[in-house]
Amino acid sequence: MRTLGVDLAAATKKTAVAVLEWTAGSARLEHLALDVDDREIVELFGTSSMTGIDCPVGWPDAFLPFLTGHLHFDARPVLDHDGIEGRRLLAYRDTDRFVTAHTGLIPLSVSADRLAHPAMRCAVIQAKIAAEYGPQPRDGSGRLAEVYPAASLKAWGLLARGYKGRGAPEADRLGVILDQLAAAAPWLDLAGQEDRLAASDDLFDAVIASLSARAVALKQTVGPPETHAAAALTEGWIHVPSGQLAGLGGS
User: 112 and 179 in one domain?
Assistant: First the structure.
């Protein structure tokens, strides 16, 4: 099995990918790259069994009717979201609320925060993948799944906060997490890339996304409950690991 992890940004220079090759009882980092364009992502998707992408794959179901109502001066779908609670339905998806309830982490809003630009790029990438390999269900039941590295780290009992950025505190925390990862997953061969990973949270998140993709493939994540299944198909679903990191090793 090969798993691809993508830490997607709006610009290629901040976009990272990591490919893990899985064999009996071990995994090896086969490819690690920063400054990655759409073409490389689509090509790597084609050679991977499962891809985990750190970016929303859809928008809240309420968001499009709200915009359409505004465009056509149809007050009803706009006024349905009057007030802060109504606006929260426009900003956050079912999966975002589910992740917050189960992990305490609050994903950024795809429609009202810094994720908007990467999500637009993600939609284009999904269309390119669909053209070559067929549409991928947004609930993660195909070969593409939405993942959230911070939630994966927390589910595996690793440090999940404070490592984003280029300052000394962030770099120190990232080094601690790498040490924790090495201790928790001795079967993971990072192929001598530890220094690059310690210097780039983008590259590091791509590796965690690839590990998370393995968890999805092994059905070791929390999938959408029946009450969220319909929304997951349109909005997307963040796959948070349900098992231990040690459970990812094996054949």
Answer: yes
